[in-house]
Amino acid sequence: MAKRSKKRRDLSTVTIGENTRTGTSVASLKQAILDNLYYIQGRTPELATPNDWYMAVAYTVRDRMLSRFIRSHKGIRSSEMKIVSYLSAEFLVGPHLGNNLMNLGITGQMRGAVKELDLELDVLLENEAEPGLGNGGLGRLAACYMDSLASLNVSAIGYSNRYEFGVFNQEIHDGRQIEKTDKWLSLGNPWEISRPEIFYEVNVGGQTVHYLDDKGCFRVRWIPHHVVKGFAYDTPILSYHNDRVNILRLWKSEAVESFDFQAFNDGDYYKAVNEKIVSETVGKVLYPNDEPETGKTLRLVQQYFFVSCSLQDMIRIHLIRGKGIETLPESFAVQLNDTHPSIAIAELMRLLVDEHLMDWDKAWQITGKMMAYTNHTLLPEALEKWPLPLFSRTLPRHLEIIYEINRRFLNEVRLRNPGDGGLVARLSLIDESGEKYIRMAHLAAVGSHRINGVSALHSKLLIETVLKDLHTLYPDRFVNVTNGVTPRRWIALSNPELAALITRRIGDRWIKNFEDEIRKIEPLADDAEFREEWRKVKRKNKSRLAAIIQERTGVVTNPDSLFDIQVKRIHEYKRQHLNVLNIITLYNRIKKDPGREIVPRTFIFGGKAAPGYFMAKLIIKLINSVAEVINKDQDVAGRLKVVFFPNFNVKNAQHIYPAAELSEQISTAGKEASGTGNMKFSMNGALTIGTLDGANVEIREEVGQENFFLFGLTADEVINQKVKGYHPRNYYDSNPHLREVIDQIRSGHFSRGDAELFRPLVENLLNQDPFLLLADYQSYVDCQDSVGLAYRDQERWMRMSILNVARMGRFSSDRSIREYCDTIWEIKPAKGGGKAP
Ligand code: F58
Prior knowledge:
The chain is an alpha/beta fold. The chain has 2 domains: 79-94 and 130-168 and 187-480, Glycogen Phosphorylase B (Rossmann fold); 487-821, Rossmann fold. It is 49% helix and 15% strand. It contains 36 helices and 22 strands. The strands form 5 sheets. Strands 5-8-9-2-1-10-11-15-16 form a 9-stranded mixed sheet, sandwiched between helices. Strands 19-18-17-20-21-22 form a 6-stranded parallel sheet, with helices on both faces. Strands 12-14-13 form a 3-stranded antiparallel sheet. Strand 13 and strand 14 (437-439) form a beta hairpin. The longest helix has 29 residues, at 50-78. The two termini are 39 Å apart. Bound molecules: N-[(cyclohexylcarbonyl)carbamoyl]-beta-D-glucopyranosylamine. N-[(cyclohexylcarbonyl)carbamoyl]-beta-D-glucopyranosylamine (F58) binds at residues 135-138, 141, 289-290, 376-377, 454, 483, 672-676, 694. N-[(cyclohexylcarbonyl)carbamoyl]-beta-D-glucopyranosylamine binds next to helix 7. This is Alpha-1,4 glucan phosphorylase.
């Protein structure tokens, strides 16, 4: 022992003064960058490419994270502390460099160090490939929660797949979306640490064999069709100015034997390498689908693969802690981020019963204690269900386990509700109404001790609609945890000037304790000088965004116009096309009276459409077609501009939210589970125009109804309209402005005379309009007019903007994570995290 510590001491004195691996002065950082450039990238400054420099800087930052990482890691193995295991098919973490610099508190020094090397930190930051391991809100929420878990000093591991290709990159050609493969790993990933010694085997396919063991107990052996091996890759997740570093552990799939010698010797080269190809396909690409997921075996294998590796890993860690398997829930609280990882319920049962020989009742008790499920959607088409034959072919043992869970569960239902066959059919884990399916939401709910929705309205609708019967059965399991977002990435990092302004007035504790501290800027809404500084920050951010827009799209925008922004996945329920209907209405007003006074506006859209979602792609084309006509119209004279910002992702979002003045949250009431973009906009001083949907309801309550532009039907009114029989054509017939707009789109006015192009969209609106655009049209247009009016009074607008930010404390993801800790995980955030003393 003594010898080892002596050796360690010797090593630490290799450098005199500050260590160039850990020192944070400008001189140390500069030296470290040069060393890393030479020793890791194998380059000298003269030969270095921009990526070489980026890598050298990134490694320099990583070196400074490692001592904390190793300390936290040791804690995971040795302490008694419960660990949150966040199982999610997606983690949209965004670029790491800027965030890690901020969390370490060395952004300024690093800026100085790279400057001495004739480099610009902002250019290096732009150079980072974004890990696009998510589609939208659900994946980004997981990333915000990882940030808050670390900053609240809660031990956590985020588990997922290490997709080789993330969400596609979107390009716009001739106004249409083109998908390009996202090769985010191709230039190397300096943030991950591979752990070749941590791997697990995962079975796929085949059949089961039932037998009695030597004690006469019933046992099942799974003889798989093939086996895939999962290797761990760890990305450290830093806390903000704290010691805690958590882990994002991603599993890479590989073949058990990458080369089949038997087959090779038999002369079958193809077969010899085929297994490798099949195994590696498992984690190749993130599914971009927003469509029903049935029929996609690979997606089920992907889900099962990361879940199985993760559960095996948790058991390993628990056993390393020197504990028995029966106490597993003392070490882990597992959160299922939607149904995608819900196979975890059956897999944990399999591991406990088949591999650890536990009896069923005990295993079921442990499973229920550990698992909790978050629902993120009410849309029936998005509720995951797997066709029985596909499921049985892929996971034969899990099907047996699910049957057994179902048998016991339905017995309980029958006992409590004798004679109610309808209820039994509705609650069953198997949908037998036609072709048979496994209902993954039911599996998740039955096997969890808590089920939560993501906003107050969504949680209420969840128990009134899709999970009504389950709620009647287990009312105590249901809770609400309204989503939140991290103020670190979404204000401190992406809007540094606003952050500096706030800090100058109230100190910097708001960054750690946004919930309580940010309200301190509220009185400053009455301070004219502060309002002026506030206005200047926004103006600068707009001007910066205008430059980026011009560079990426060629469109020149006016930073003095109102920046009205809608960025999110493109979906009919989010109603980007309602926004377009209003734009055309404003355009028509100008055409009729070119001299009229209007508030100049720049409408900015961004978002990806699922590649197979025809209508969403057509909406992108519509936005670009309308932009083409309006942007060059002489009568408009630049007073309206329409921009489609390509490839909306975390990196671009960091430029967009800080420049927004109006946030479009205009989904059909009852459809958006929560929304989190709404929170990011508000935190950056944008005012919201929105429906009473998702978290908009709570945002409005917090910021005050006088600081929120409300329009549209409520969720109840939407349902009533549909019950009464909804006839969109009546709105078209009775509203001449709406009729004119629809007729223009239909006639080819915005599509160079092509009357076919938007026909499907127009027909859909006139005949079905499932998301009630026409019903909400007039209310939306009127509300937009009141926005214009409010904007004319800049003093009033700035006051509203400041109040919006001041009252956003509740929407920090720190608050959400505290609620998960209290009501779901039974964890007390350890001292040292979160709220400043
Ligand atoms: C989103 N869901 C909700 N799903 O739509 C949004 O209201 C909520 O704020 C957010 O979750 C976080 O709770 C969402 O983003 C997806 O991206 C699916 C992932 C799997 C494929 C289909 C889309």
